[in-house]
């Protein structure tokens, strides 16, 4: 494909406003593009105006490589502060500006174009499944839906095109030195500003609700203090979390729980009849989400045996940890492809944030996953951008990985 | 004084709107009334439109009996639901309706009229100090101001004219049986619907603020969780409160602490940098407010030795417990006066709520206090009322107590 067409596909996608919804305009755009290139597609509706897209090429290989990206973007926040507006792509000094340039319409466009070029390559022998999802930014809902419907079951490896680079080497150094990127390598200085992730923690978000009985504070024994009961649970939970430090992952570290919100009571003179707290746990493969949730429910069931306790566990989300063996062939292939493209080593690190891969891995734990995309840390910011070169070079990296994977 | 004049004084006071402020209109009304009867007065300004009033008669006795009541009333809340309006006194079937009829313009008027009648009684040999306060309902601010200025220092006994009866015997039985009134006597059935309080708990209201450092929940170790730190304090405080059960009062029972509010965090993904809780402790004379506050501050100082802890104690109010010896002469006199007036025994019980006496007792712990006034449990309610008979009879009780006290 011509460079100019590659750039105009990305521009087209940036113009499509898919802020936390409305993703069918991206799905339809890509379907039309794939139709033109004789690639089989399937639209999978999520809800009103929200459409996932699957596109596949099948050369009869014995394994399947997945390409995945999400169609939604986060809100532009302060529209006034965008130099060119969030949905008005501008190419300035080698950068393309606009909401989603980094996260992740560049990755999505790059993977789509790779699919088209691989399909046209008569020497390519592999099977690729391209998956464009809705609602990654809020709940990974498209990936969740597709995983439940079996779309991840036959995948052997997966490239998630989320932003994995930084905009400059000093920024990368800062991120690594501050601990914001966890590095397995002791010496990051030999690497450039390009990286990919071989792992990220999962997460569990939940709420604990405690119900009691109101009373005037002069007669506390006439009531049941829901807050006191919630803190009784908090203390049990803290003891339990301490036991989890026994489990550790070489790249991701340990399970990391945080109680982030607690609210109870609104009158100084009244025993509160309700209390709730939010907890976020970052999880590792060594102690998986379902085991954790079962343990927490057991603690609650035990406390609820007391007639004065009424605690409720409400799961808000459960995103599984993603971890690819550092010594796997897929990771070796990824390293080689980066080295050939950038003539420099690329870090493979554990990322703090999550991706749709959490959902696919939950359905099929055997997928080797890398998160690799042209975007950078300008994601979610005002004046988000991607380097034009990165965008174009990632298409080369994706093709290299795919070709090597099916060699 | 004629009955009609007694009733019209109460009506006049009810018409004066002194909802949490504006008390100078009551102070000025009473000053004018006392002036007319040659009783010496002193206006003590609290703040804009807020005026305390002191009125005294001095017959050279060696002790002083105080009469006290507050000039403010609570808000009428739902004005529509008042049958005759909150500030429009109506006499219907032996009841007088209006905001403050029970709490406590009937008590205030009754004590003022008692003062006038005692002043006219050539046989009366006692010294009385009448104290009308501002802002009892919110913070007991007038009593606090007057106590600090020394107005309680020379008092030997004090009648607080707050509502101390119920509207019916069944209601009294219900209140006692539900534990809402704590009774020293094992058998309340021999008593009528009239009662007075010889004791009530004090209270301490305070806030604990915890300050930390925000961070993304994927990197909790980059922040300081203010909520976790607050709960560390909560747990220490709970251990401390458990030690207070060693102290007990025969009428008031034990120190009774309640954590009534806790708030922290507003984003699930962010380590909270602030957390706060409100605590209300009902106190007893056996472990006084200042000792408690010192203990709490010491716990905080110790925790704050950790560089990651930043806890702050904020006192919101400290009202002292009030307790008069059940075997004191003043209580015997009160019992006799009730029996002579109602031809039935009166309960003397510990009340759950507080009064201005908390402030006077803090300044002068030697005052014998009773809370005795014509009002009932309709205080603070819509269609608040007082029985006309109760209002008039309490003037007789007050006179009897004063005469017996100086016999």
Major beta sheet, strand line-up of chain A: 1-2-6-3-7-19
Structural class designation of chain A: alpha+beta
CATH class category label of the largest domain in chain A:
Alpha Beta
The CATH topology label of the largest domain in chain A is: Aminopeptidase
Bulk shape of chain A: elongated
| Unreliable stretches of chain A | none
- Main β-sheet of chain A, in a few words? 6 strands, mixed
Largest interface: A-B, 41 and 41 residues
Spatial separation of the terminal alpha carbons of chain A: 23 Å
- Rg estimate of chain A, integer Å: 23 Å
- The average pLDDT score of chain A comes to 92
Number of domains of chain A: 2
Labels describing this entry:
26% strand, six-stranded mixed sheet, Alpha-Beta Plaits, alpha+beta, elongated, homodimer, 10 helices, Aminopeptidase, 20 strands, 2 domains, 407 residues
């Amino acid at each position: 494909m011509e460079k100019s067409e590659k750039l105009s596909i990305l521009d087209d996608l940036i113009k499509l406003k898919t802020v936390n919804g409305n993703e069918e305009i991206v799905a339809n755009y890509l379907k039309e593009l794939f139709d033109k290139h004789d690639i089989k597609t399937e639209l999978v509706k999520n809800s009103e105006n929200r459409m996932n897209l699957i596109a596949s090429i099948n050369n009869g290989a014995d394994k399947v490589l997945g390409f995945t990206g999400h169609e939604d973007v986060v809100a532009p926040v302060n529209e006034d502060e965008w130099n060119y507006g969030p949905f008005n792509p501008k190419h300035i000094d080698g950068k393309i500006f606009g909401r989603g340039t980094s996260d992740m319409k560049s990755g999505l466009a790059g993977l789509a174009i790779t699919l088209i070029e691989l399909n046209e390559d008569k020497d390519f022998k592999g099977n690729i499944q391209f998956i464009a999802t809705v609602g990654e930014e809020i709940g990974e809902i498209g990936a969740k839906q597709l995983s439940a419907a079996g779309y991840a079951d036959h995948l052997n490896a997966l490239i998630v095109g989320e932003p994995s680079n930084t905009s400059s080497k000093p920024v990368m150094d800062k991120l690594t030195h501050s601990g914001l990127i966890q590095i397995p390598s002791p010496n990051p200085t030999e690497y450039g500003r390009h990286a990919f992730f071989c792992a990220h923690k999962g997460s569990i978000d939940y709420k604990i609700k405690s119900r009691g009985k109101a009373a005037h504070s002069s007669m506390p024994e006439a009531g049941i203090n829901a807050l006191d009961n919630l803190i009784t649970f908090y203390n049990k939970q803290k003891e339990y979390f301490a036991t989890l430090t026994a489990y550790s992952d070489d790249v991701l570290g340990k399970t990391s729980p945080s109680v982030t919100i607690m609210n109870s009571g609104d009158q100084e003179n009244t025993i509160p009849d309700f209390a709730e707290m939010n907890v976020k746990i970052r999880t590792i493969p060594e102690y998986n989400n379902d085991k954790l949730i079962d343990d927490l429910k057991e603690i609650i069931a035990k406390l609820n045996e007391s007639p004065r306790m009424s605690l409720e566990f409400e799961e808000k989300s459960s995103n599984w940890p993603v971890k690819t063996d550092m010594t796997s062939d897929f990771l070796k292939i990824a390293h080689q492809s980066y080295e050939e493209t950038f003539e420099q080593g690329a870090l493979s690190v554990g990322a703090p944030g999550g991706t749709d891969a959490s959902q696919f891995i939950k359905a099929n734990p055997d997928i080797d996953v890398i998160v690799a995309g042209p975007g950078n840390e300008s994601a979610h910011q005002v004046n988000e951008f991607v380097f034009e070169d990165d965008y174009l070079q990632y298409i080369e990296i994706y093709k290299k990985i795919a070709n090597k994977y099916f060699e």
